[in-house]
Amino acid sequence: MTQYRHLLSPLRLRGHTLRNRIVFGAHTANMSDMGIPGPRVQGYLEERALGGAGMIVSEPVPVHRTGVLTRGNYLHSTDEVIPHFRKITDAVKAAGAVILQQLYHIGAHGDSDLSFAPHWSPSGLPSYHDSDGSHAMTETEIEELLDAHAAAALRAKMAGFQGVE
To answer: Is position 70 within any domain?
Structure first.
C-alpha cells in the first residue's frame, strides 16, 4: 500500500481533522420520511462513520422547490429539518467522522411530476432525459435562488454540519 501511503493518515481541513482521507460521497438514498431525515438515514450514515470513513457527505438536499429531483428528497425550505439533521450530525461526529451536507438545485433536469413544481433553469430548455421543459429564470428568480442557497447553508450549519458542498 506504499503507493497510497497517505490514504489512512490524518488530514487538517478548514479547522477540522479528518482521521483519514477516505470520503463517503453524497448520493440519493431516498430515505426521508415525508421530507424529514429519520433514524433510518441516521443509522445508514453512522455505520459509514463507524466503518472508518474520515468524511461523510450527506444525501443531496434541494435548496428550492423548483429544483427537486425526487419526492424522497429532504424538505428544503423549513427549519423543521434542523433538529432531525442535528441527531444525524451528532451521531456521525461521535463515531469519529466529519460530516458535510450537499446542497443542490437540479435545474432543467428535474421531473415536474415528482417535485410538484415547474423547474427553473438558466435557459428554459428541456433536459436531456425528458421533455418536461423548464422555466427560464428571471433576474429576480436568480436572486431568490441565491438566497435559497444561503438559507439552506445556514440551516446546515445550525444542524451541526461542518461544511456544505
So the answer is: yes
The pairing of strands 16-18 and 23-24 is unpaired
User: Which range marks the domain in which residue 38 is found?
Assistant: 2-158
> Which residues lie closer than 8 Å to 65 by C-beta, 6 or more apart?
76, 77, 115, 116, 117
Per-residue confidence at 55, pLDDT binned at 50, 70, 90? very high
Query: Whole-model pTM?
Result: 0.91
Number of H helices, E strands in the chain: 4, 7
| Domain contains 112 | yes
List pLDDT tens digits, range 88-122. 999 999 999 999 999 999 888 877 766 667 888 99
Q: Please choose, from the candidates 15, 16, 19, 20, the residue with its C-alpha nearest in 3D space to the C-alpha of residue 5.
A: 20
- Pairing mode, strands 16-18 and 11-13: antiparallel
